[in-house]
UniProtKB/TrEMBL annotation:
Chain ranges passing through the membrane: 52-73, 85-113, 134-155, 200-220, 226-248, 269-287
InterPro entries reported in the protein's UniProt record: MATE_fam (IPR002528)
GO cellular component: membrane
Organism: Cynara cardunculus var. scolymus (Globe artichoke)
Pfam families: MatE (PF01554)
This protein's UniProt keywords: Membrane, Transmembrane, Transmembrane helix
MF terms in GO: antiporter activity; xenobiotic transmembrane transporter activity
Record protein name field: Multi antimicrobial extrusion protein
Length: 319
């Protein structure tokens, strides 16, 4: 009887808290009106939105700042003449735009790799993946150099007037430093985004935008260095972004994910090349289906060069 009584007491002691807990839940649910439930949902919505905008807001601003540099360069080139504006519009919109999409797509492979490594707390692999992406994209930049070197004959083959094609070729050659900055900038941006450090990218982009605006004004109006000088300011501004992000990374901004340069970055390069190539093709294919206006715009600029007054037509379309 004692043993049975003891067992009964144990069962009662275990059941009573459960009954009390369940009844408290029921009472709590009965006391919550619909307005409080709605307010709770709004609070959760605001919290999640704040988290999302903490990531998305700086990313949006950095893309706008980078794009604004091309717009500012075109605007200052328009003060130099119709031919200069047409040449820089073709060089930046067609040649750099084509190159931009390819390298951006290949660098997007880091979004998956770095995101998985950071989520698994395998922090040291983020730096290795970053260096592998630098190597692969740098080789891709070397292979795509003919796009810049032979821009003039290609544009003439497409029906562009000789004066526009020649000057566009000069601008394209002057943009080769910007071409190589892309292979370093895009991977390090994905590297920092995977660690939720988008505010760093935004601050560096804003600084580069301010510097670019000031230098462009000095080059055009104060020093009068012409079109090539205007293009050089674009190179400086884009490399300023690379230097700023790289300095933040190696100078203590990412102590867990950056442990210096490693020979491990040269291991497994072929697999990384295949992943980057697939990512680049995927972005190209998706952009060609869902963002056809980007391709239409580039095609229209090239086709406009076949009109009678090509310089004015290309200038108007670019504006």
């Amino acid at each position: 009887m004692a043993a049975n009584g003891h067992s009964v007491r144990v069962e009662e002691s275990t059941l009573v808290p459960l009954l009390d807990h369940s009844s408290s839940n029921v009472d709590l649910g009965a006391k919550l009106p619909d307005q409080e439930l709605d307010l709770s949902f709004r609070q959760r919505y605001l919290i999640e939105s704040k988290k999302l905008w903490h990531i998305v807001g700086p990313a949006i601003f950095s893309r706008i700042a980078s794009y604004s540099m091309f717009v500012i360069t075109q605007a200052f080139a328009g003060h130099l003449g119709d031919l200069e504006l047409a040449a820089i519009s073709i060089a930046t919109s067609v040649i750099v735009g084509f190159d931009f999409g390819l390298l951006l797509g290949m660098a997007s492979a880091l979004e998956t790799l770095c995101g998985q490594a950071y989520g698994a707390k395998n922090y040291q692999m983020l730096g290795v993946y970053l260096q592998r992406s630098w190597i692969v994209l740098f080789i891709c930049c070397i292979l795509s150099l003919p796009l810049y070197i032979f821009a003039s004959p290609v544009l003439k083959l497409l029906g562009q007037p000789a004066d526009i094609a020649e000057l566009s070729g000069v601008v394209a050659m002057s943009l080769i430093p910007l071409h190589f900055s892309l292979c370093f900038q895009f991977p390090i941006q994905r590297f920092l985004q995977s660690q939720l450090k988008t505010y760093v990218i935004a601050w560096v982009s804003m600084t580069a935008l301010v510097v670019h605006s000031a230098i462009s004004w000095l080059v055009v109006y104060r020093f009068q260095l012409g079109l090539v000088g205007t293009v050089v300011t674009l190179n400086i501004s884009w490399w300023l972004i690379v230097i700023g992000l790289f300095s933040y990374t190696v100078c203590g901004g990412c102590p867990e994910t950056w442990n210096g340069f490693s020979m491990e970055a040269f291991q497994g390069l072929w697999g990384f090349v295949k992943l980057s190539a697939a990512s680049g093709v995927m972005l190209w294919y998706s952009s060609s289906l869902s963002n056809l206006e980007n391709w239409y715009y580039r095609i229209l600029i090239v086709m406009t060069g076949n009109l009678e007054n090509a310089k004015i037509a290309v200038d108007a379309l670019s504006i």
